[in-house]
Write a structure and sequence with these properties.
Blueprint lengths: L10 H31 L3 H37 L4 H37 L3 H33 L3 H24 L9 H26 L12 H34 L3 H17 L1 H19 L3 H37 L3 H14 L3 H16 L3 H27 L1 H25 L8 H7 L5
Helix pairs in contact: 1-2, 1-5, 1-8, 1-9, 1-10, 2-3, 2-4, 2-7, 2-8, 2-9, 3-4, 3-7, 4-5, 4-6, 5-6, 7-8, 7-13, 8-10, 8-11, 9-10, 9-12, 10-11, 10-12, 11-14, 12-13, 12-14, 13-14, 14-15
């Protein structure tokens, strides 16, 4: 496999080279959540409500994998852009891989031991808790496999190979979705396992993709277990952790915040949780092109910053934001027109469908702001400014989304939740402009942006 040099040629082509194939991979992965919601929704409102509670929690823990993959991407892509030796670059990948396996195993054990208490605090009732208890142990068992797959994917993307990364994600999702109806409803000699079956299907898909990804990375030389693993390990791990820890927290903040927002929604009843959870799954799939763009901008910024082409890295940020604005307008219009049929298809309960429909109709117009946030965070992570991306995400959740959501649900019910989501997304766009300017990835003479950016530590 030939490595891709992202420091030459049109910037939009460099972004598309990674983002286009990765969009299929991200779509396939996120479609698993929609498929789980659809299949389990056929079993009744209780399994669907359980998935509504599970999704933000598992997404928060999955952010550890995203953070570790961001660290791998930053170190490997900057090493490539800086023309380090092949052995040095491979060693960065190996250190990221080992760190990921260790941290994922510890995290999985913590999740296994604490999930009953966690979901109880979120407001899950006895019937829903029983369904959650069927799902979470198998999810914890498969979490190290997910982390392994994501780090290997990040290494492939750092070398400019978005296609391989995408194929691995598609493979995991296809296996998962294909096994869902078999393991959830039963087929032939296979008994119907319900919610437990959905978790087992995920574990099998992740495990298969992880094994194939490691094997191919070894074949390409992107992972090399023959290099001296302890050479430069202190500096390597230090660089990985400087990006990985704040990047993990940055990515965990949104789903963790969503868990607290879900707790606010739970005050309105299980139907509200089911409808809100279904809507956020549809939102996740609708955001795939923007999430793929964030996956693509990391290697582009990392390689160019490592090569000293700072203006080219800034141009990549600007172009990515124009794409967010264009796609966001199209997305808002599409969800506004299709909210009712989508809600009816994914939520079998009429009351839950109404909650889903309301969310998609109104919040959809603001999702461009969230796209700007995730691309800004990815660019700053690749620039090794992960603390700034973490601070931006933390401000969005703690200063805007959570206070408005809880105040809104007390004062106005579900419309208050929708208002909070819209304002949080608009804040994301404004905050990204300021934060990215402060780290040198944006140059503008706009007085409001430059004056505010001076207040942010560089």
């Amino acid at each position: 496999m030939a490595d891709q040099d992202l420091t030459q040629g049109p910037i939009w082509k460099a972004l598309a080279r990674i983002s286009a194939p990765v969009s299929f991979g991200i779509f396939s992965v996120l479609s698993v959540g929609v498929a789980d919601a659809w299949f389990l929704g056929q079993l009744g409102a209780t399994p669907l409500a359980a998935i509504g509670f599970i999704f933000p929690v598992t997404a928060a823990f999955t952010s550890l994998a995203i953070g570790l993959s961001a660290g791998a991407n930053a170190t490997v892509s900057q090493s490539i852009g800086g023309s380090d030796s092949r052995e040095t670059t491979a060693r960065y990948g190996l250190h990221a891989f080992g760190l990921g396996v260790i941290m994922a195993t510890v995290t999985a054990l913590v999740v296994w031991l604490t999930f009953p208490m966690l979901f109880g605090l979120m407001g899950a009732k006895s019937g829903v808790l029983d369904e959650i208890a069927l799902y979470m142990p198998f999810w914890a068992l498969s979490f190290p496999l997910l982390v392994t797959m994501m780090i290997v994917n990040a290494i492939f993307r750092a070398y400019g190979s978005g296609t391989v990364s995408a194929l691995l994600m598609v493979l995991a999702a296809v296996i998962n979705i294909a096994l869902n109806p078999v393991l959830i409803f039963g087929w032939g000699p296979v008994p119907g396992l319900g919610t437990e079956g959905a978790a087992i299907a995920s574990a099998i898909g992740r495990g298969t993709a992880a094994i194939i990804g490691i094997t191919y990375a070894l074949r390409c030389g992107y992972l090399d277990f023959t290099v001296s693993i302890f050479t430069g390990i202190r500096d390597s791990l230090g660089q990985l952790l400087r990006v990985s820890v704040p990047a993990a927290l940055s990515n965990a903040i949104n789903p963790a915040g969503m868990a607290f927002v879900t707790a606010a929604v739970a005050t309105l009843g299980d139907a509200a949780v089911a409808g809100f959870g279904a809507a956020t799954r549809v939102q996740s799939v609708a955001l795939v092109p923007l999430l793929a763009l964030s996956a693509g901008i990391g290697p582009v910024v990392g390689q160019n910053w490592g090569a000293g082409s700072e203006d080219r890295a800034r141009a990549a940020v600007r172009q990515s934001w124009l794409m967010c604005l264009g796609y966001g307008a199209l997305l808002g219009a599409s969800l506004f027109l299709l909210a009712e049929p989508i809600a009816s298809a994914i939520a079998s309960d009429a009351e839950a469908a109404q909650f889903t429909r309301d969310y998609l109709t109104f919040v959809g117009w603001s999702l461009f702001g969230y796209g700007i946030l995730v691309t800004a965070n990815a660019a700053m992570n690749a620039r090794s400014k992960a603390v700034h991306s973490m601070s931006l995400s933390l401000s969005r959740i703690l200063l805007v989304y959570l206070p408005l959501a809880w105040a809104g649900v007390w004062l106005f019910g579900y419309p208050g939740i929708l208002f909070a989501a819209i304002v949080a997304n608009l804040f994301s766009a404004a905050g990204s402009l300021v934060t990215v300017q402060s780290v040198g990835l944006l140059k503008t003479d706009h007085p409001a942006i430059t004056k505010t950016a001076r207040l942010v530590p560089s």
